[in-house]
Amino acid sequence: MVMVQSDMSRTPVNGQIMGTVGEKKPNAQTPETVPQRYDNTTLSTIIRFHKKERMPFLEEALFSLAIQDWHDIEPIIVLQNGTEELRDTVAGIIDRQPWAKAPRHKILSISIPAGMDGRSTLMNYGIKSATGRYLSFLDDDDVVYQRGYATLIKQLIESGRPVAVGGCRTALAQNHNTHWFIQAKEMPYTSWGSTRLDLFRQNFVPIHSYVIDRSRIGEFELRFDDAFPPLEDYDFLLRLCAVFEPDFSQLGTPVCEYRIRLDGSNSIPYSPNASPAAVAAVERARQLIIERKKEITCLITISEAAEFSTLLAERDQLPFVLARHVSRFLRQTRAKTGTFVYRYPWLRTALGRTSRLLLGSKVDKLRNQRF
Amino acid sequence: MNNSKSKRSLPKLIIGVVTFNNQQNEIEQLSRSISFSVENISHHQIEAHAYIIDNGEASTWPELGIKLIGFDSAGNVGFGNAMNVLMSAAFSDPATQWFLCVNPDGVFHYKALNELLSKSVASPNSLIEARQFPEEHPKEYDPETLETSWASGACLLIPRAVYETIGGFDPNFFMYLEDADYSWRARAAGFSIKFAPQALFGHSVLGRIPDQKHFLLSARYLGFKWRNAGFVNRMEKELIKRGLFSARSELPPLPKSDIDAKTVDPSMADFKHHYYFAPGRW
Questions:
Q1: Where are the domains of chain A?
Q2: CA-to-CA separations, A239 to A1, A135, A189, A299, B79, in angstroms, rounded
Q3: What would the CATH number be for the domain defined by A43-290?
Q4: What predicted TM-score, i.e. pTM, was given to this entire model?
Q5: Hey, of B133, B136, B139, B145, which one would you mutate to test binding to chain A, going by the most A CBs within 10 A of its CB?
Q6: Cβ–Cβ below 8 Å for B108 and A59
Q7: Tens digit of pLDDT for each residue in B31-67?
Q8: Which of the ends of chain B has fewer CB neighbours closer than 10 A, N or C?
């Protein structure tokens, strides 16, 4: 094992936060963490829900849970400032799903002060109430494929690792009055990265594409930081994966779907109409992530160190330098180019095919040059 | 629906399921989903029954909350043939207005039947296809009119008017592609095919590898029936290339089509898009 630190001036504490980044906000409720023993086969899946207008999406998310090949599921729905009426509605929907095994579902309602982004708090309450050995997260407007959780849990069992990651497809959805028309599906994240080091560079692991085996993480505290929304999921993964090496062997197997609504209503990077406050929140979270990366230390394997060294050696070669410039340009104009490219699937496909034709297998590495 | 007199006059929906050695948990989950979905159509004032036939071992069904009729198995006669037995029995009752063809390894969303029936009421001269979930078929459909070129038989609502005009599935398909053929026949007869995006039918198709031999033989027959010699040739080459047959002379003879050659309109068929049989969205 080799110790690699991003900042040698600090005392290394593996996977621990050593600075002030991400301190809890004073008004946030904080659930107590109770160490538990996990001698069951239950998968606890936490879904946050904060707008009743999103109920049609939640129905699909719950249906995708109900038809999983893994039958022992504990759905935990965490409502933000949920009323009794909303609780009853959600409970009614859960009861009408054709579960293979009747679930012991939980519906929590958490009070979040006005003006606070409660995403992390909701998740932390969900984690606190989860009883399953296995833990997963699902956004209320995404879905998991039928074999998704069974595939990942099988991988956890076979590999003995505490985290198993699967592939995630994006579905680009256009609003057509009566329904959301899926105009294209693709699997972009596999070309963003496939290793823990790739994850440290950028997030290619959507929140619903992995399962955690809690029996293998000891006393590690699973907690989302209230300072980090909307990038709280990436911060969570950085801290978790700094300590535990995930299993990425199912990355090529689609286990879930991330639905991008092309009107920008669920994804700021694709929205030309994102509010200045939302854009500012993303930028602030990005800065916090940069700080977090400076403060977390990590033990890596020799093979990871070798990969790291190869990438460093290649970084000054001409194609990679060019790619960095292109990548920087695209990032700087992300809102416009992202929306433009995503509106025209043929253009996206053509760009992908052309770059692969010209650069061959190097294209995947090129996209990840972010040191 | 509270007295026998009104029951007799209610229009009927028959849910037809052909099983083939399905696991008991699949049957139970489908049963549960039928119950929830039927509960949700009470306002339509229709009577729902389920017709079951086993192509393999006998299946055991729990209480559905609706009348369930089991038909004598004729062995493994193929999907279309078995479904035709159920369809024929269903439409022999003049009260039956719809037959819902359902795969036994799928699951209804509780709103699915309601969505299918509502779409059928709005478009009485159409076959109505449910949306397979979470992975829907990538073939194109018009997002405004919801028209599509063919409908999957995994969960397909067939109204009486279509059955009375074109009958059931072509019995020459043992399994696979009888639904594409049925759709093209319906369109050739003047009906349309509509997609119901909010009628969710949980059906795991992602990563599933079909029985290659039966699929390619069905594709070969589809090409033959719809007058596409090039496609027939491709399928025959594919059957040999994959080692399923050693030579063309070993291939089973192509059957005669059961429908009048005059009703086959090759312009309804699409062999340009490989196994999608329609332009794909992805």
A1: 43-290, 315-371
A2: 18, 16, 20, 12, 52
A3: 3.90.550.10
A4: 0.87
A5: B133
A6: no
A7: 999 999 999 997 889 999 999 999 999 999 999 889 9
A8: N
